[in-house]
């Protein structure tokens, strides 16, 4: 097969891990006889510095004309305090809007060989297999107004949480679709005891669940969910929630398997192309040190092969290679424990390619 892949390496370790994922994809292409065409676009801080905008039009066009998009990470302290139109995260929010990405899907799986890298006891995390579906296009991160206001002569501030019913429906439906292929359970997370938006969310989840008689639907309040995620993560199969709750809970879920550096994600739209990125950020603290874990990015590439190109065997091959390399004891610094072999980003990529 021939596929066009837009690569947006971004900033910080985004560049370092994207390079690794491309090498792994090239190796897969050679082994299975596919031609992957990689075309590079700028986003985030690098784009601000060179072109004066966090998301140039060329990048948007490139993405729209590709079969899939691979994104490293964007941002860094250098761009955090700039005016809004020059902030690196604006690039990320806008590409999501431009591509109509409405759901971020984040699988979290237990790696037996990394059990000792998790702060949680093995009995608690053993066998965890969950996927978090986070609404990505609405909610409080996009609502207007979002500004400082004066009220009764006092300084104040407002952020707005807005959802259209249809936005809730499509993301909840996606969660049910995933559950059908998995263990058949959806946990919908909200704050329905306080928020009107959550009450509508619950209502919609109930309606959609009627189309999926074999899937069990459970509602859980977000505060309880934050606790359950640590106390008994095995109870979850598919978790679905709105934008901000999902942002927070998916970072929490990342701790279960040991490191942010292990977790991939897919962002889906109605028509495609889909975007794949590790859940971690640009990690300015370790930039340029060669210690970034490339596995989250490499597993994101595997998700791309499976989800966007239907290349299941190829995706399996990457996932198996990652498992074998971990089983053989190779570790980047973030997952290093006593007695294992410490390797750099490039060495980890090299081991995975060699195993492939
Ligand atoms: P963002 O706002 O972009 O989500 P963040 O503030 O959540 O970023 P990250 O950049 O994800 O932060 O980094 C959080 C911590 O995890 C940092 O200490 C970083 O070094 C570490 N980290 C993140 N990704 C990796 C990785 N791939 N390998 C090793 N360590 C990582
Ligand atoms: Mg973060």
UniProtKB/TrEMBL annotation:
Binding site for substrate: 96, 106, 134, 223
Isopropylmalate dehydrogenase-like domain mapped to chain residues: 4-352
Residues that bind NAD(+): 281-293
Entry's localization field: Cytoplasm
Molecular function via GO: 3-isopropylmalate dehydrogenase activity
Keywords associated with the record: Amino-acid biosynthesis, Branched-chain amino acid biosynthesis, Cytoplasm, Leucine biosynthesis, Magnesium, Manganese, Metal-binding, NAD, Oxidoreductase
Record's protein name: 3-isopropylmalate dehydrogenase
Catalytic reactions of this protein: (2R,3S)-3-isopropylmalate + NAD(+) = 4-methyl-2-oxopentanoate + CO2 + NADH
Role this protein plays: Catalyzes the oxidation of 3-carboxy-2-hydroxy-4-methylpentanoate (3-isopropylmalate) to 3-carboxy-4-methyl-2-oxopentanoate. The product decarboxylates to 4-methyl-2 oxopentanoate.
Site annotation Important for catalysis: residues: 141, 191
Cofactor annotation: Mn(2+); Mg(2+)
Pathway: Amino-acid biosynthesis; L-leucine biosynthesis; L-leucine from 3-methyl-2-oxobutanoate: step 3/4
Location (main, coarse): cytoplasm
Organism expressing this protein natively: Cytobacillus eiseniae
Chain residues that bind Mg(2+): 223, 247, 251
